[in-house]
Amino acid sequence: MDTQPTSKNNANPAGDFNPDTFLIVEPKTFEDLKIGDIFRAPSRTLTDAHASAFQTVSCDNHPVHYDKEWAQKRGHSAPVVHGLQVLAFTAPGATLFPHYIGEVFIAFTGLSCQFLKEVHSGDTLYSALEIKELIPNGKTGTVVAGVTVYNQNKELVLMGEHQYLLRTQEV
């Protein structure tokens, strides 16, 4: 019985393994993307350790992010997770998007967002990118993606937009 892998993305004992073709998903080109394509990230539950690590990296030492008493005296139910940390959950790399477009990706060129609800340690976040616009321009094309982050209560906590520059198939 032949048990050798047949997919070009699998290693085989014959020795023709190529790490360049060992892909998580089959790649897409700019032309393969469609308006409405959605790329989701796995859900993540934020912990105090995540918030502390981000505070250390960002150097943002505002007490609203770590002082429960300070936060509660000012109307917050708990310390508030840094907004930029929530925004980081929309990073393309948090989804499979870069695996689909890895060979045609040139740059992440822009972003905007609105913070709609507070996020606290213990919240579970669900983020997604949705292709909203594809703008070809010769050898490159711009992808405009809407980004959303929901919490475990089905509340939209962040919405915004990313822009990426990709190579096209035009030569």
Automatic annotation (TrEMBL):
One Pfam family named in its UniProt record: MaoC_dehydratas
UniProt xrefs under Gene3D superfamilies: Hotdog Thioesterase (3.10.129.10)
Domain MaoC-like: 38-149
InterPro entries from the UniProt entry: HotDog_dom_sf, MaoC-like_dom, MCH/BMMD
Name of the protein described by the UniProt record: Dehydratase
